[in-house]
């Protein structure tokens, strides 16, 4: 089904967009560390739609702020189901990182609904940093002053990644899932992940791997020193009503059942 601009506008007017929540876990202990908020559209006829179907349309038509605001409100409302010290991570669009009002808007949404700013992570992709570095710096510094953390999302897939790494005050580095997905099969991917995790560590950043689908990937990432993990192995994105059971679910500890030798370490 082809989505038109009018469909998205109607969806926003009818408040059909909801946050889903995907678990992030501490690889070493298996403990839940927080959730990433991922937008979903409860479309009246097409079912639940993914962000790639509507985020670009919302961006192009200037509706992304309204959409983000509503998602944040709903996520902060559900935040009552997310105990301390678990975090909530939000994705912001490149355009929003150029909007000087962004920090104030996040602050008022969080304060209105009583979610602590210290437990908020803002995920930005590399393209967000490109056109106006100074403004992105101003906004990032304000977000940090409020207590929020900042993550560089999908690291390794944009351009001039390394340049952007030094331009903003990042707290976290998220390794793109394309590398994680192929790291067991491909020696090159494995080496890239190892290098990215090492880079993050040497810059003092929390390293996060996304798209972990197998135990073997989790074990290898842990062995490489990656701190946090996210992926279907630990849990798919879920609606707010499933948060209580997910928060209470015991998680399996990842241990070195396989010695690195089985997959050859980094060789
Ligand atoms: P992202 O921020 O990199 O989010 C991770 C994506 O990987 C999500 O896709 C998630 O469902 C998917 N994923 C997580 N674990 C696995 C796994 O083990 N295997 C596989 N195959 N996929 C996994 P999703 O939800 O379709 O979101 C796609 C992108 O849309 C996000 O990528 C993010 O850039 C963007 N997005 C999502 N929600 C929002 C939003 O509220 N605002 C903005 N501006 N962008 C959003
Ligand atoms: Mg993200
Ligand atoms: Mg990502
Ligand atoms: Mg991604």
Automatic annotation (TrEMBL):
Ranges for domain EAL: 1-251
Protein's organism: Granulicella sibirica
Entry superkingdom: Bacteria
Protein name: Diguanylate cyclase/phosphodiesterase (GGDEF & EAL domains) with PAS/PAC sensor(S)
Residue numbers of the full-length protein present here: 1 to 267 of 680
